[in-house]
Amino acid sequence: xxxxxxxxxxxxxxxxxxxxxxxxxxxxxxxxxxxxxxxxxxxxxxxxxxxxxxxxxxxxxxxxxxxxxxxxxxxxxxxxxxxxxxxxxxxxxxxxxxxxxxxxxxxxxxxxxxxxxxxxxxxxxxxxxxxxxxxxxxxxxxxxxxxxxxxxxxxxxxxxxxxxxxxxxxxxxxxxxxxxxxxxxxxxxxxxxxxxxxxxxxxxxxxxxxxxxxxxxxxxxxxxxxxxxxxxxxxxxxxxxxxxxxxxxxxxxxxxxxxxxxxxxxxxxxxxxxxxxxxxxxxxx
Amino acid sequence: xxxxxxxxxxxxxxxxxxxxxxxxxxxxxxxxxxxxxxxxxxxxxxxxxxxxxxxxxxxxxxxxxxxxxxxxxxxxxxxxxxxxxxxxxxxxxxxxxxxxxxxxxxxxxxxxxxxxxxxxxxxxxxxxxxxxxxxxxxxxxxxxxxxxxxxxxxxxxxxxxxxxxxxxxxxxxxxxxxxxxxxxxxxxxxxxxxxxxxxxxxxxxxxxxxxxxxxxxxxxxxxxxxxxxxxxxxxxxxxxxxxxxxxxxxxxxxxxxxxxxxxxxxxxxxxxxxxxxxxxxxxxxxxxxxxxxxxxxxxxxxxxxxxxxxxxxxxxxxxxxxxxxxxx
Amino acid sequence: xxxxxxxxxxxxxxxxxxxxxxxxxxxxxxxxxxxxxxxxxxxxxxxxxxxxxxxxxxxxxxxxxxxxxxxxxxxxxxxxxxxxxxxxxxxxxxxxxxxxxxxxxxxxxxxxxxxxxxxxxxxxxxxxxxxxxxxxxxxxxxxxxxxxxxxxxxxxxxxxxxxxxxxxxxxxxxxxxxxxxxxxxxxxxxxxxxxxxxxxxxxxxxxxxxxxxxxxxxxxxxxxxxxxxxxxxxxxxxxxxxxxxxxxxxxxxxxxxxxxxxxxxxxxxxxxxxxxxxxxxxxxxxxxxxxxxxxxxxxxxxxxxxxxxxxxxxxxxxxxxxxxxxxxxxxxxxxxxxxxxxxxxxxxxxxxxxxxxxxxxxxxxxxxxxxxxxxxxxxxxxxxxxxxxxxxxxxxxxxxxxxxxxxxxxxxxxxxxxxxxxxxxxxxxxxxxxxxxxx
Lengths: 285, 328, 439
Fold this sequence. Notes:
The complex is a heterotrimer. Chain A is an all-alpha fold. Chain A is built from 13 helices and no strands. Chain A is globular, with a radius of gyration of 23 Å. Chain A starts with 10 loop residues before the first helix and ends with a helix. Chain C is globular, with a radius of gyration of 24 Å. Residues 1-30 of chain C have low confidence and may be disordered. At the A-B interface, helix 1, helix 4, helix 5, helix 6 and helix 7 of A face helix 1, helix 3, helix 4, helix 5 and helix 6 of B.
């Protein structure tokens, strides 16, 4: 938008920009460089003094990570949990946001305020109660929530709901109502209008919400540490397995960190265009 | 969100005005919004609200190791847990207060820096220039990285003997006369702050960038015609136009940073050093490590009340401020 | 409108119902053990080997053997130390846990107080061959005095001084130090050769507690009074903690970098030949897996103030070890007992303790020639003559946390070059004591 600004920016602006962005790039990239370079170093390089350049490159860490801890299983668990939580969260958020955006009903304000205020809850306040609740539901109904992926999915999808609903409300508000009115007149039901008109028009917002939900689930540590066991452990907890009785295998830790980061970062960067568009229309209106 | 809909909404609240055409499906239509909200409602109840109520109940109980096995039988302790938590002359309360103050200081600094860096970066990257797209993608990497992967990398960098930070500061730049400790002792505060800012600023960047796209180009053109230079445009147009965005952004950053558990937990483990004893880890420690879930719950409830108060006051003040500036 | 009200009422009722079920939380744990599912068991093992995967390789064949003998399938989960206590706590709270589990023996009294573990009374001991099978020192760390043990000993360990023979030879030290003064003096010679003197895990709460406990014994002090009240600030306790921290602060024997060690980096340093000495429990298997062969290092008793190790102020190790416990609400009580019998039987004791380089707490298994190596002689001797059990009080786990953390902070002070004085130690310990539960 500023590209066709009439005046060329002054020299002071250009220099400030150059310096600032260079420094910032260095700050951002430093850990990324450490992660990548250390993951290719032999163990001796990461236990002694830090070296900028590896004494020799090795892909050994990338082979070892799979046998030091059952990384593949953690990976699958994280994928299943984060994937399912994302899908459910998006669907539920779409329904809720549509209701709030398109209908007037009693309790609407209470609903939005309550949902948003859950963002304030310190996780530690409901960690133990939630855990007790899951156990008791399990005892009463036989549905295993505690220790299962299902329980974790429920938890994570709810964590991302408030922000998702809030963002989608903003987004749906920006989709002209004439469109769904027209669809309603054409004989679509309200759900038809939602899925044929509103959802396609809100794709950037929905993608943004999905990315957010996925990242929330992929990165959570606290609840995963209490609510998973050997078979359902996710990456967030599983990565701690690299520092056990023996040694801290920094090269393997870095390799594993890189491996678990790549899918999220790649997905995120591919979708970032949508994210900015989604935020522009949704959250920051 | 501030736009009021011009278009008539499909009214379902039949009480306020007569429905144009009474349809047989009216009851279904009244129920529809609730039906749509039901899944979200059930989940919020299950995962957030009911556990919160249970947590509040727990805060009135004496829930130590002698009772955790069957905490229905734990004796009610009235306000004891709260009294212990806010008795700032006794060690438990004193430690809580200390942790609270550390958290406040940390949160304000972190949010301030995140906002500053994020806003500056977004404004500097408003024009197109070569490599802008690449840079933007790069800047989002810290935000996209899973928390634990990013923080573990920082842990490695902050190691005393084999970390990058000491290597650079001590071995290469000779700024310190001996290698410093970053993960224990007083420096841990700066280590935590660094990681938090590194991880948090891209979110501010993202939101401000989105906010900038909503500023109409005519404003800049008008200002340019008035002879305002680039710096003046930023001061007079860009920053004021971001008011609404900043209101939400700062609040969200504040709440997330204040409640952040993952970063300090991965950085320091269960027992954080005093200088970086953030409240979420402090409460975790108080409940899980010392097995006193009653006091832990009471502390969490106090924390929640504090955040409610801050958010309420913040929203009241900033909304009034915004309304006033709109009226001008 | 009525639908709305109904919906609201429904929501409230539902939340109350959920809250009510939750408030009844743990009623399931009240159920005493039963034999509802006699064909399976869940077993939580602690991480004893070099990694969790190593543990699985050690244990699984034994569990298969047990299944062949009894037809009971044992589901194994190896829980990392960082998670173990939390997992036990959550299992206790919810009643959803394993049938049989390993616990650090110092936690025995704390976990006993929750009432979640099966007490080993005469009748239960009879089922596994009787109490007499176990050596006394190991039984001393299975729960509060005067109560039936909450667990039975599985592996025993003791601290010893591991020293690098090559470094000692280079520095011209003929004998491993027998007193702390000798250790500090030898340290000077070792430093002259450019090596680090003594490794320690300064940020590891448990390790810190184990060491200052022994130092306190050597200063004639205890952290608890006879009736179980915390007493952290006695002169003896203060000098004990100070002496340990001074190994870094004043004597410079422990390198400052160790102040942030909490993940056994000190063992790696020792294995790599960076450090001359290490105080560790049963490190042989660990050192071997890091490529340090047994002829490279020697094992000696942990130093004392003066004289030779013994009882009272001559104590030089805690009774370290792992106990095996049964969750009271197991639904396979007979199977769980059988499993404990299997694991504490002579044959398994020999196999497992050899794999982990620990000492069998079962007297009849100790006689196996495999446990007669020089290394084990020192450990066995220490356990028999000069080891003391950590306080067997309900607040033990809190004690570990607050004292261990206080020592960690003192190490951080020492590492930052701040003075560690009697006053600063006393202040830290006073603060720790105030954090102990009052009820």
